[in-house]
Design brief:
heterodimer; A: 142 residues; mainly beta; Immunoglobulin-like; five-stranded mixed β-sheet; flat; B: 63 residues; mainly alpha; 46% helix
């Protein structure tokens, strides 16, 4: 028997340069510069405009607090933790889309994993979304 | 010719603030929660681990 869904589902997760809403259609979003990596000149590197785009859905009403964790693969250590705003769903649940600036401090070039976790009233926290993200060291021009 | 409606629509995209957690105590607590969640998942995916751990040790026989 499948377990009851107690926290929102992450239906979409993307890191991009910009998100705008369609002016003609409700619920349509234009994502610009969707990326799997970014190049950095110097380290530690804090991106100036990097956005985390999330589409969440829930069959249940309520608020669901959660957090973002950025894990450095080389060291297997978290380099960033942040609280997410509490996504709130109405009586019939539904879905919502959000953007949030990802102002993480990346200590060095390499592979990172961006994770979206949710607290649960009963039981352990639950990982509902993750994506790899690469920080590349940009070679300086001679 | 009927013109296509171009009414401006209400925005539904939510802009959230990400509040960085810098308190080492809070970070440690989150790490502990994550470790507990990962351990529980690993045990669920591989129940023999938990089974072996909880297997009773052989009793010493008294003479």
């Amino acid at each position: 028997m499948p377990a009851a869904v107690l926290t929102p589902r992450v239906r979409m997760m993307a890191i991009c340069d910009r998100v705008t809403e369609s002016k003609s259609e409700i619920g349509v979003f234009n994502l610009r510069g969707v990326r799997q990596s970014i190049a950095a000149h110097t380290f530690p590197y804090v991106p100036r405009s990097l956005w985390l785009f999330l589409v969440l859905s829930s069959p249940r009403p309520g608020e669901f607090p959660g957090y973002v964790r950025v894990l450095q693969e080389r060291t297997d250590k978290a380099v960033f933790f942040a609280h997410l705003a509490r996504p709130a769903f109405g009586a019939d649940g539904g879905w919502l889309a959000s953007i949030t600036a990802l102002r993480c401090r990346f200590p060095e070039a390499g592979l990172y994993t961006v994770q979206a976790w949710f607290f649960q009233a009963q039981g352990n926290d639950i990982l509902k979304g993750e994506m790899p993200f690469v920080i590349e060291a940009e070679e300086s021009q001679p | 010719m009927r013109q296509k409606s171009r009414k401006p629509v209400g925005g539904i995209l939510q802009k959230w603030e990400m509040i960085e957690i810098t308190d080492p105590g809070e970070i440690d607590a989150l790490e502990r929660r994550i470790r507990a969640a990962e351990k529980s998942l690993a045990e669920r995916d591989n129940p023999t681990v938990e089974h072996q751990k909880s297997k009773a040790k052989p009793r010493k026989r008294s003479r």
